[in-house]
Amino acid sequence: MNPDIEEVLISAEEIDAAVKRLGQELTKDYQDKNPVVVCILRGSVVFLADLVRQMQCPLEIDFMDLSSYGGGMESSGQVKILKDLDTDVAGRHVIIVEDIVDTGNTLAKIHDLFLHRQAESVKVVSFLNKPERRTANVTVDYVGVEIPDKFVVGYGMDFDEQYRGLPYIGILKPNVYAHLFN
Predict the structure, then answer these.
(1) What pLDDT digit, counting tens, does each position of 135-149 carry?
(2) Helix H segments across 95-173?
(3) Which of 8, 57, 81, 153 could form a disulfide with 163 if both were Cys (CB 3.0 to 4.6 A apart)?
(4) Which CATH class is domain 12-150?
(5) Is there a cis peptide before residue 42, judged by omega within 30 degrees of 0?
């Protein structure tokens, strides 16, 4: 285990099981819909790669890069589009792939944007869901794992661009980020 990790919250085996379950659910629901699967960069890339390999249906993939965190641990509330989609979503079924949904503010803005762009439907799949932190009225349609309000890293998720490659999801030791509060 990485020495900066206080506790492994979700093991690699638990991640695999949750991704397989989500892939089966999405396959069933999107079998004949050819959805556009939109990966929210960067944290969702690892999850997306695993998820689409479990989806046994035609699909397209696109990417969107957003900024709402800056370098800290809390969302600024301001959502900026750094890289927009290359795909026109009008008349298409869109699946937004998130690594984690906490406040839901970013997700709410993106969901509304796709509806404004006349998507046929917009659904959300998030590997992690942190409902305790929710401030926006958003629905996470497909949830991998619900977690408590802890700062987690691994499986694509980072702190200051580190820890993305961990094969598990862990709780970061407070002393790693304590300098942010001094």
Answers:
(1) 999 999 999 999 999
(2) 105-116
(3) 153
(4) alpha beta
(5) yes
Rg for the chain (alpha carbons), in Å?
16
DSSP, residue by residue, 38-94: EEEETTTHHHHHHHHHH--S--EEEEEEEES-TTSSS--S--EEEE--SS--BTSEE
Q: Give per-residue pLDDT as tens, 25-52.
A: 999 999 999 999 999 999 999 999 999 9
C-alpha 19/C-alpha 63 separation (Å) is: 19
Q: CB-based burial of residue 131 (10 Å sphere; 0-12 exposed, 13-18 middle, 19+ buried)?
A: middle
Q: Which two tokens stand for residue 146?
A: 């619900």
Question: Active site includes 50?
Answer: no
* Catalytic hit among 4, 102, 141, 160: 102
Spans in the chain with pLDDT lower than 70: 69-77, 181-182
Sign of CA dihedral 103, 41, 48, 39: positive
